[in-house]
Amino acid sequence: MRNGWMPGDSPPKLSDWLLVFFAQRELKPSSRRDHQVTHRISLDYFGDVRIDSITRQHAAGFRAALAEREGCSEPTARKHIRNFKAVLAEAFRQNVIPYNPFDQIAGGTVRVDSKWRHVTAREIEQVIEQTDDPRWHALIGLTRYGGLRRREALAIVSADVDPATRLLTVRNRNAGGRRTTKDRERVVPISPRLFKLIGPRLNASGALVGFSDGWLTGAHKRGGMTTFKAMIRAAGLAPWSKPFHDLRKSCEADWLKSLPIADVARIMGHDPKIALEHYHQLSASTIRRIASGQASDAEREIAELRAKIAELEAAAEGKF
Hints:
Blueprint: H1 14-24, H2 29-46, H3 56-68, H4 74-93, H5 121-128, H6 134-144, H7 150-155, E1 161-162, E2 167-170, E3 186-189, H8 192-198, H9 215-221, H10 224-234, H11 245-256, H12 261-268, H13 272-279, H14 284-291, H15 297-316
Antiparallel strand pairs: 1-2, 2-3
């Protein structure tokens, strides 16, 4: 079956090559949707031209047009550049075009402020006290005390939990077993508090009671986030910007205070650099200890590593 263009044909029109790209690339649903938006924008701008007619001057014009596009923020503009650069990079790789006209257009992600709300154990216990529903207890526990992403927590079944070893396996449940940086299978230790929150939900049928009927998933689709924020307010706290994600970050931050960075990163399912850059908060006491010469070698190494990461990112910024 032809997808608009076949090897040996003349360089294809943009619409035909987009069909080829989609047919050859395995993309997550969210990435596919993002690419579809990018492709519509690119067709609107360039028209259905032959892809070998797109030049670096056209690429610069497209970048400028994105900057002027209503509702298109800098991070969104860069995402469209990355997406379209990938389309033409594949054409170049297959010798369809002589060069990638977008190869000099920056499309790297914008470094965002890593500030977030650390939710203490005492605070989250106050929130848990606002409901008697053990399904909420399990979801909150898995995110705050297990460091799971919300969607990972909602997918946990009893077979993932080993009560004897107190280990929980977070599995890759993408269709076809496709793996991405956020879908790494990993093992998470179950703390006594987390086991107390999820233990009563375990049953022999293979699911956490209440999770199998889609209650939590359905609740979130119908405004469960609103419910959770109401629980936070009822606990006398101001809702933080990312209610569940900040619970995951708070869990990792607590672990980083006493556990090796490499171990924590492995449990959380990401690179140690990510742990330092986005989950570790440099405390005022650590700053004072370093400034006064009282810091341990480990503390100094962490501070130096964070500084090195920032230096490398600044140097690499112009390359993407």
